[in-house]
Write the structure tokens for this entry.
Amino acid sequence: MRIDTLSYKYRSRQSAAAMYQSLISEQQKFFQSKDPEITQLQEGTVIHYEIFTKTERLPVPATLTITKLRPNECFQMQTEHTKGIILQTYHFSQETKTEVLYSERNTFDEMRDQFGFLFIGFFYKILYNHGIKKRMRYIEQLCQET
């Protein structure tokens, strides 16, 4: 894994198919909250909104695009903003237990921002792990409710 990529592996008792479907359902709700005309997620689906980046205190305009949609295997989104790109990927695998590997790769247009991220990245990793673990537990809980 690259130094500019954060990752977290989550093991679940739910099937990869159930975890994937719950994630897609939640992502569809998010996309529809930004663009009510979206009825189905597919590769190339795009929304425009504002985000807070790890290097900016104010919201910046962003474009979020679904770049990969492989049922029960992979879901990937790319966020382009004024300072760079964030690539978020969920990989699903199932052997004895389901594993979901979430990764977030941050690249910046300016070297100064890249170094700034690498500097705060170590501290951000602690918050990142907590946040993604909470998200994965939520997705797993949704599987149990359906």
The mean pLDDT is 87.
